[in-house]
Fold this sequence. Notes:
The complex is a heterodimer of chains A (285) and B (290).
Chain A: E1 2-7, H1 15-25, E2 29-33, H2 42-45, E3 48-56, E4 60-63, H3 73-77, E5 83-84, E6 87-88, H4 98-102, E7 108-111, E8 114-123, E9 126-133, H5 140-157, E10 162-166, H6 173-179, E11 184-189, H7 193-208, E12 213-218, H8 224-236, E13 241-245, H9 250-256, H10 268-284
Parallel strand pairs in A: 1-10, 1-11, 2-9, 2-10, 11-12, 12-13
Antiparallel strand pairs in A: 3-8, 4-7, 5-6, 8-9
Helix pairs in contact in A: 5-6
Chain B: E1 2-6, H1 14-23, E2 28-32, H2 40-44, E3 47-61, H3 71-75, E4 81-84, E5 87-90, H4 100-104, E6 110-125, E7 128-135, H5 143-150, E8 159-162, H6 169-175, E9 180-185, H7 189-204, E10 209-216, H8 222-229, E11 234-239, H9 242-249, H10 254-257, H11 260-289
Parallel strand pairs in B: 1-8, 1-9, 2-7, 2-8, 9-10, 10-11
Antiparallel strand pairs in B: 3-6, 4-5, 6-7
Amino acid sequence: MKQLTIISGKGGTGKTTITAAFAHLADKPVIADCDVDAADLHLLLTPQLIKQEPFYGNRLASIDKEQCSKCGLCEETCRFGAIHGFEVDNTSCEGCEVCAYICPGKAISLKERLSGYWFVSDTREGPMVHARLGIAAENSGKLVSLVRQEAKDLAEKENKNIILIDGPPGIGCPVIASIGGVDLVLAVTEPTLSGLHDLKRILEVANHFSIAATVCINKFDINQENNQMIEDYCKEHGIELVGRIPYDSAVTKAMIRGLSVIEYPCGAVTREIERIWHTVEDLLV
Amino acid sequence: MVISIASGKGGTGKTTVAVSLALSLDTCQFLDCDVEEPNASLFLRPSIDHKRSVSTLEPWIDESKCTFCGECAGICVYHAIAVFEKDVLLFPSLCHGCGGCILVCPEKAIAEGRRNIGVIEEGTSNSIAFIQGILNIGEHMATPVIKDIKRLIRKDMHVIIDSPPGTSCPVIESIKGSDFVLLVTEPTPFGLNDLKLAVDVVRELKIPFGVIINCDGIGDDRVKEYCQEENIPLLLSIPWSREIAEAYSQGIPAVEARPDLKEIFHSLFQGITRIMESKRDYDVQLGACR
């Protein structure tokens, strides 16, 4: 069983569009939406919910006003600046428990916080594991790891061939959690200076964690010069460029209909993504 | 006034809006808080004259004093320390820097070290005071870098904050304390879905906000309908234009490619100012009623 993560560094380059297309083309996939902050894959795969489970992230400090002697030691000791005037600021608290340890009156305890939900669903392309992080909640990396573990268990149990992981933008904790231990990452970029800048950083992250990476350029025809710069960069660094997808406004039309670009034909876009999938499939073997 | 530009979904045009807004003001401070993938400098091309590193606390264990009692591992909820019979293992990337281990160690064998996780660059771009944070490759936590950037917020000028995409901790850290948040979206199902999540976040933080639709015309009208239903001010619609897209690809600010937009962004700023003033009046009235 293989694992592929679609990442990008920069947001909005087409990760989810490509993941949904791959889900249609792959043989027996499990699909994992690891963009738990702003998940969109469900809008294309219309999942039928099978299971919903709560996700508990870090715990939160809570001060018992009756027991509190207002000594201020907790505020002084908190490294996250999460205590002001004997109240805990939930958006700053990282649940370290140091305040509870230091409090002479034992007035502080840590409380579980519901930080979101994760789901197992059925889709027309196969089973899907996805999640929704709670409003202003932390620990998205932890939730990503949970989604991936569930997807892996499911793939093993149901004898699936591949886990397709739709990754988040950026290079921080949820991205690192999305790519750890996968067989290959596909970085989707666009021929803009931002696209190239962000691609370089995400490829450095993949390299840092010794994960094989490959690149595809989306909307490659909007700027020939930048497209060439990306191609040159990949060549210089020995990274395989698996495809160039042209710009086509039909992609948005497919999205509005809730279909992948394979199910809703988008001409050259569809053909190129099919070709990319076969190349990626070969790389995974 | 501190205005943050946020979005939920990535690639909707946060940086385009933030840069255009900054360039339509006489002067301002610009903070690029998208420290994982900072892009504003590609457009503002600032001259950087000061760099400082961002570090987090990291425990240093003096093994000659350590008795391997395990108290430090016991308090560490992040599992960043493991203690064995004759060995202590530290996992720096898991450490949040809470200092718990230093507090509990009965032998005072743990000292407070620092570990660099990123850098903050300060400079100027014409009349803009520019600051950006850059998270080091392989680092997990963006929030300490964002916190350090925000310590540099100036009180004597308007502040524009370009925040990261998403809805979790780095976004909260970036927009927290702002007077107003501009949520940039695109008129597509993905744009709408992620806008709703972003709206939940700014409502939770109780920050006044408005919406900007970028690339108007590429999709459907559901974002507009949603804003109407929810009584959210739709402050600006920027129609999709090849000219702006091409300028973006080359790192040219939209207001430079299309000078007519400068006036529009200036009016946007005045619109936000008016919203804030009427809100203040309303708050004062409310106070008087009480």
